[in-house]
Amino acid sequence: MGTKGAVRWLAAAAVLMGALTACSSSDGSDGAGTTTTAAASTAAAAGQGIGTKTLVPGKAWTVEKPAQEGMDAADLEKARTYAFADGKNTQGVVVVRHGVIVSEWYTAGADADSWVASWSVAKSFSSAVTGIAVADGKIAGVDEPAATYLTRWKGTDKAGIRVEDILHMQSGLQWDEDYDPTSAGSSDVVKMGLSKDELAYAASRPVATTPGTRWLYSSGDAMILSGIIEGATGMPAGDYAEQKLFKPIGMERAEWWKDAEDQTLGYCCLDSTARGFARFGLLYLHDGRWGDQQVVPASWVHDSVQDAPGDHPGYGYMWWLPEVDGVPKDLFAAEGHDGQFIYVIPSLDLVVVRTGTYVKDPGPAVADPNLFGKYPPDDLVPGKGTKPPDSWDDAKFLAPIAAAVQD
């Protein structure tokens, strides 16, 4: 699910359909942001090439003072003050410049090893995995019909939907991502999350308009993309990502949720750490390259952050292209509900991660019998799932970080 609007509709849907489980005993406590006390890593960063923009961490990160990487600590403190103000429910912030951590803050009780939620940040990972599958020859290209890999669509009125139409959220399929509680009974995103076979639900939506002609934000499209990846590679998208993406960039702690049919939830729910998300942002900052390895094709990264055709708020291949006052125009971002963000600003050689309060379910990362009982959003079950900020202003958070750059 996206970050736009609150999702109080889930409360109505969950109560009506018995989706939510009993409250966790964890208190999910909040507190003022605390700076990590980790010393600079003794492990050498891997992949140092021409200039600092090729610097990536090895198994451990290098941590330095802001001034060592040309940043002003006082300006960074303004961002920290905003992020950890009462009601913001920020769990962690990581600021990376020149491939090293220059600032890292966590709420009381959390640290660099704490689990974080993704919600729709996972869509950007699904896009990356698709690009890897194209490079591997598993997917012929973005102009290939999705039905080549999602064979249930062969010979149907969906046979002409291309992979790129899915990536651009322009499948043409009927979809209701309505967040209004009064519409909970008709919302497709709620119905999908309550389904045991989420891919079947998404793929069964009827064609509403010609593919490639209308932009419509749809978690169903991202779930379909997961099915395309599985059909092309012969394994769940999350398993393919583990081999081709997580391991190469050192995301050692990553769990991508699946539905009850063992299908990766391509639209959401990739649990990692704030530092893990920073690795992914750094990969895209470096045009898909990690040290000596081209993990995601550079051309794919470029195409991913180009505005899709049509009328929409700035969107590429499942990456947002926001315009934020006080921040360079080349900003792009992975965004998830309840305030999950990976911001990438290439002109400043900067990656910023912000994650919200998250209490992870102790069981397997499987949405069985449904997603919302184990992964409740919007603080619907205190002490379990994710808790949103009372409000969030990208400019108030990011502009001070951008202003901190002194060189």
> What percent strand?
5-15%
- Low-confidence segments: 1-52
- Distance linking N and C termini: 37 Å
Class inferred from helices and paired strands: alpha+beta
Tally of individual helices: 11
Name of the CATH class of the domain at 9-136 and 253-403: Alpha Beta
How would the global form be characterised?
Answer: globular
| Average pLDDT figure | 89
The CATH architecture of the domain at 9-136 and 253-403 comes to 3-Layer(aba) Sandwich
Helicity level: 25-40%
SSE sequence, one letter per element: HEHEEHHHHHHEEEHEEHEEEEEH
CATH superfamily of the domain at 9-136 and 253-403: DD-peptidase/beta-lactamase superfamily
Indicate the radius of gyration in whole angstroms: 20 Å
Q: How would a crystallographer describe the biggest sheet?
A: 7 strands, antiparallel
**CATH topology label of the domain at 9-136 and 253-403:** Beta-lactamase
Number of strands: 13
